[in-house]
Amino acid sequence: MLEMESLQKSISESPDVKNKNLLKKKIRETGIRYSITMEKRMRR
Question: pTM higher than 0.70 for the full model?
Answer without folding.
Answer: no
